[in-house]
Write a structure and sequence with these properties.
globular; two-stranded antiparallel ribbon; 48% helix; 4 helices; two-stranded antiparallel sheet; mainly alpha
């Protein structure tokens, strides 16, 4: 699978954009930038948001020549990186909106410099690299079950891993939605 192949899974098909076009809006979806709360997205929303964020992150890393110590290949597997990159994406969308003040992009670049420092710190802490990745280490607090052991994996095909990750995330969200709907229909009252 190459990075330019469409993302396919039941009910969804997303064509990958041109590498230099992060702001292309799919038809029928909102064009007004809004914060993304990854904890509350439906399966449909998550499918869209993952693909959009991935498109933008690929554009960002190529445009600014960002190495894996800032944005590692498996950034999508680290929630701290997802939240930071998602916020940076929203900030970029707002800064470059046609109705924004002309100095807004300058503010974005100032904030981007700070965000790169945070990204670098988080990547160093999680241990993700160009060719290897592991889950971010968790510390169990007193009274909690011990944190699961952290296993390192080899990064062989970033695009294929992203596709698998999104399919699994959307399927999990859809299962939760279906269980919620089924619980509501089982209620005899």
């Amino acid at each position: 699978m190459s990075a330019d192949e469409a993302l396919h899974f039941p009910g969804y098909e997303f064509d990958m954009p041109a590498q230099d076009g992060p702001d292309v809006e799919p038809e029928g979806l909102p064009t007004i930038p809004r914060p993304v709360n990854w904890n509350l997205l439906t399966s449909d929303q998550a499918a869209f948001e993952w693909v959009e964020l991935d498109r933008w992150v690929n554009w960002l890393r190529r445009t600014y020549g960002l190495g894996p110590s800032i944005i590692p290949p498996l950034w999508h597997r680290h929630s701290e990186l997802v939240w930071e990159l998602s916020a940076l994406h929203l900030h970029w969308l707002c800064a470059y909106d046609e109705e924004q003040h002309g100095s807004a992009p300058f503010g974005w670049h100032r904030d981007f410099a700070e965000a790169r420092e945070r990204l670098h710190d988080w990547v160093a802490a999680c241990g993700s690299r160009l060719d290897r990745d592991r889950s971010t280490r968790q510390t169990a607090w007193p009274g909690e079950d011990p944190a699961p052991p952290v296993e390192e994996m080899t990064v062989e095909d970033r695009a294929a891993d992203f596709r698998r990750f999104v399919v699994e995330d959307v399927a999990h969200r859809r299962a939760v939605e279906n269980a919620f709907i089924a619980a509501g229909t089982d209620d005899p009252s």
